[in-house]
Design goal:
single chain; mainly alpha
Length: 410
């Protein structure tokens, strides 16, 4: 099936919408600690949804995984586990740098490393990317995306400047620039490991295609492996919090015990790279002034809905990747830009920017415009790639004397 970058961009926008929206159902969860509802939702995100869809939409899933090279399975799993570590340190970045600067730094690192490292490791960067018009256009789009992230960070900084000194001290109690930069670097690079895991699963995609899986669903078996790694990190962390905070009973009992810790006054940090953080856990403890019972059915329902919505970001991501031709590495930039776009739109809809000054609102609007432009530029670069032949293919054809034709995407 020939590549269709325009359709690929739409798929990535749908993935960004899912990622930017997944936390909304969690707002309906009552009387559960963060670690409880995050793990319940996580079972749907990392186990139930990926296995269910892969079983029904791909061919011979179990046999494909058996035939997959052990090295591919290992690296896909390991990178998924490392991606979880990136989320664990995300909250520390917010603690030391504040929400706006910390978010901009982490997302900048994640977008840059997740996009550029796969072609660099494959040895394709200078030949297929830097050395071609289509590849260079994509790099411009990546740069525009990073600019959009910086503008979004500037909007946050502008909003923080409008806060009172008391509000600032409450939001950044432990500001430390040097430590914050180190933690943000680690968190951003580890969070980009999800893209590395998907790239490590390329042999699995080839095997599932040979078994008759449609091209559009070839990435689903890889998600099973990568998300298993992410599940490992999240599961261990949430269980540790359940034990430490004495909240493990919440999975089975609606009665709230008085030995549960009180709810923090700090706001819950919605992590756009979608993995747990210390602050999110601390902020979601119980308010004992509320009725002493939890609505078990609705809590499980909302957590399942949130977890399934979370999974669909990468369901659509793998679909979009199949449409980007030989420059599928650019999918990560489209994914990150789409997440920020829809997260910001949800913030506007939920009135998080109400009361902000004219300068802040202008920066928010500008960040959205720049990020949308970046997705258009990256999509156009991929379109140019469908009209040209990769340098390696051209050289081989010239050497053999055969006529050049555009190379189809896998």
């Amino acid at each position: 099936m020939p590549a269709n970058p325009a359709l690929g961009v739409v798929f990535h926008w749908l993935g960004g919408l899912a990622s930017g929206s997944f936390y909304v159902p969690f707002r309906g969860v009552k009387r559960w600690a963060w670690e409880t509802y995050w793990l319940v939702g996580g079972f749907f995100s990392w186990i139930i949804a990926p296995w269910t869809l892969a079983v029904f939409m791909t061919a011979d899933l179990i046999q494909v995984l058996r035939e997959a090279p052990s090295s591919s399975l290992f690296w896909a799993y390991l990178f998924g586990l490392l991606w979880g570590l990136g989320g664990l340190t995300f909250g520390l970045t917010m603690r030391y740098l504040g929400m706006s600067l910390g978010m901009a730094m982490v997302l900048g690192y994640t977008a840059a490393f997740g996009t550029l490292m796969p072609p660099i490791f494959r040895g394709q960067f200078f030949t297929d990317v830097w050395g071609t018009r289509s590849g260079f256009t994509i790099l411009i789009g990546v740069g525009v995306c990073l600019l959009g992230i910086l503008v979004a960070g500037a909007a946050g900084v502008s909003k923080e400047r409008e806060m009172s000194e008391e509000q600032k001290r409450a939001s950044i109690k432990e500001f430390n620039l040097k430590t914050g930069i180190l933690v943000a670097t680690f968190s951003g690079i580890m969070s980009a490991c999800f893209a590395f895991g998907l790239a490590a699963g390329d042999p699995i995609k080839e095997i599932t295609l040979r078994h008759g899986t449609p091209n559009l669903w070839q990435g689903l078996p890889v998600l099973v492996v990568v998300l298993l790694g992410g599940f490992t990190t999240n599961f261990i962390w949430c269980v540790i919090l359940n034990v430490r905070n004495r909240t493990g009973y919440q999975y089975f009992s609606s009665k709230i015990r008085n030995n549960s810790p009180a709810k923090s006054d700090e706001p819950i940090l919605e992590n756009p790279i979608d993995a747990p953080s210390e602050e999110m856990a601390e902020a979601a403890h119980l308010d004992l002034a509320e009725p002493a019972s939890a609505p078990m059915f609705s809590n499980y329902l909302f957590s399942a809905l949130a977890g399934t919505t979370w999974y669909f970001q990468f369901f659509f991501y793998t679909m979009g990747e199949t449409q980007m031709g030989r420059f599928k590495f650019s999918s990560w930039t489209l994914h990150m830009a789409s997440i920020i776009i829809f997260s910001t739109l949800w913030g506007i809809a939920l009135k998080e920017w109400n009361g902000a000054g004219a300068k802040t609102k202008l920066l928010v609007a500008l960040s959205l415009l720049v990020l949308v432009a970046s997705t258009v530029i990256v999509g156009y670069g991929n379109y140019l790639g469908t009209l040209s032949t990769p340098p390696a293919t051209a050289a081989a054809a010239s050497h053999s004397g055969t006529e050049l034709t555009p190379a189809p995407s896998r």
